[in-house]
Design goal:
By secondary structure, the protein is of the alpha+beta class. Helix content is 28%, strand content 26%. It contains 3 helices and 6 strands. The longest helix is centred in the N-terminal third of the chain and has 11 residues, at 9-19. The mean pLDDT is 79.
Length: 87
């Protein structure tokens, strides 16, 4: 599993070190990846341009097998939804 975040590198590095996240974190400050996956959400000013909450199940040959994209910043896929897609 890999998380993709658009915050500044130093902020994320500190968070990862403090929490000991058990997965990789890709820092997408230029927002190239979130744009490519179609989850970029323009709010108004550059520092607010974020990704919508999303989850993608990608198999080893880089095919997206399942995806979930929230309608706003408060909608997240539940663990049940993600686990069902993995089955």
């Amino acid at each position: 599993m890999t998380a993709i975040v658009t915050d500044r590198r130093e902020k994320i590095r500190r968070y990862v070190e403090e929490t000991g996240l058990p997965f990789d974190v890709l820092i997408d400050e230029r927002r190239d990846v979130i744009r490519a996956y179609g989850v970029w959400h323009r709010v108004g000013i550059v520092t607010w341009n974020r990704a919508r909450p999303a989850a993608f199940l990608i198999d080893p040959d880089a095919t997206i097998r399942a995806s979930w994209i929230g309608g706003n910043q408060t909608q997240f896929p539940s663990a049940d939804v993600i686990l069902a897609a993995c089955r």
